[in-house]
Amino acid sequence: MIDADEGTSANEHTEARMPVLLVRKRAGGVGEAQRTCHLVPMPGDDHTPAALTAYCGELIRRGEAELLTRPSGMPCVGCLFRVPVPRTAERNHDWS
Question: What stretch of H or E contains 14?
């Protein structure tokens, strides 16, 4: 389904509004250079999944990462390139 006003599909609108988690692999589990801040789509249900898949494709298993409350460390460039971009109205919203 295409939205005539913006030329994008309804599915793209849904993805752009999805909450995103910030996660980073735990210290000691991987080298410091691999502890980038990944962007992960919020799971759709109430249970904790066995693994999360970051937008870059990195599989992050339960217990091997920490959930961040704000960006910390080096961002994952692959995630930054692939995370859905908010629509114009959402970008202009005052989130404070």
Answer: helix 10-16
Instruction: Residue 11: count other Cβ atoms within 10 Å of its Cβ.
Output: 9
Q: Which amino acid is at 71?
A: P
pLDDT digits (tens, 9 = 90+) for 49-93: 899 999 999 999 999 999 999 988 899 999 999 998 876 655 555
pLDDT reading at 11 higher than 90:
no
Please tell me the total number of residues recorded for the chain in this structure: 96
**pLDDT of amino acid 9:** 45
3-state secondary structure 17-86: CCCEEEEEECECCECHHHCCEEEEECCCCCCCCCEEECCCCCEEECCCEEEECCCCCCECHHHHHHCCCC
Neighbouring residues of 62: CB distance < 8 A, sequence distance ≥ 6: 48, 49, 50, 51
